[in-house]
Amino acid sequence: MGAGPTPRPTQPWDGKVQVLGDGSTSETGPQPKQPPAEKLKPGEKPPQFVVFSWDGALEGDDHLFSHFREVAKESNAQMTFFLSGMYLLPNSKRYLYHPPQHPVGTAAIDFPTDAHIRDTVEQLRQAWLDGDEIGTHFNGHFCGPKGGGDWSTAEWQSEIQQDYSFVDNWKTNTGFSDIAPLPFDYQKELVGGRAPCLEGQKTLLPAAKALGWRYDASSPGDFQIWPAKTGGIWNFPLQELPYPKQNFQVLSMDFNFLANQSGGNPQGDPSKYAGWQKEAKDGYRNGFERVYNGSRAPLFIGNHFESWNGGIYMKAVEDVMRDVCKRDGVRCVSFKELADWMDAQDPKVLAKLRQLDPGQIPDWTSIVK
């Protein structure tokens, strides 16, 4: 990877050539694929926003992180990666993690290998340069008793500060001297996250608001309606989508299809994989078509870099991304980009949008004035 680390630009890339710390220049930087956020014009139909987000953001042995970066490039999509900060903390330094209400150095997920840290750092660098967002999935992924739902705001503050530390100090903690620093300032980059198991939003929000975060994606689910602010920041929940051929809704995340199909067993009956994959794909498409041809409320799809049930959920999401992101009027964006667009709108127009049912086709001239 070269003779040594290259200096990081002193400011975020602005589309111009930059002078680096050693006097050299660089023309690389975030490459947004979507139009800038602009206020809707009178009578204009809103874009159909779709946000693909990933919990954990560890580049594992199956290289799903890097694969979906390529899929997004081919689909004209940008995404949000919710990084678990401890995925940049080596197992040998696990004692640096002091999780709320749990013993020092423990976590509900595995600490990464050195090889995984190296791969993840490279993927984070490339994702940011692609124009994708790096959010947070916090650290130890504790759920249930003594998990995020039981934490106080002060305990969430501790979890967040440790997340900052693990990402900011990954070079010190790993001792790796042959990898360049990350090309972004994490404490400036980070403007939102998703809590593990979607637990603890009530006490998390005051901590997020105090840090100037712009959104939270930890709400456990709602109908496909236009978002509103909760606790002073945008609330971007997972959503309830029409389950194929069934009279119920399923949460817009791979794990929830897994729960309905194989009872949460990640290695269910292989003879059912093809049917389950089609169900997941159709479920996401059902949700998309309902709003694309109706209220145009944003669609939020959450995923994990996991090969559950033979990787069928990854394949379903890939098919959906390739299908919808290049359609007319569709913008596949990050949560940060969606927050930019929401902030640019007339609050009165947003209030009207929130009154629409997902499949409702309104007279846009009466909504956007």
Automatic annotation (TrEMBL):
Protein name: Secreted protein
Region feature Disordered, mapped onto this chain: 1-46
Domain of life: Bacteria
Skewed-composition ranges (Pro residues): 1-10
InterPro entries: CE4 (IPR052740), Glyco_hydro/deAcase_b/a-brl (IPR011330)
SUPFAM superfamilies reported for this sequence: Glycoside hydrolase/deacetylase (SSF88713)
Organism: Kitasatospora kazusensis
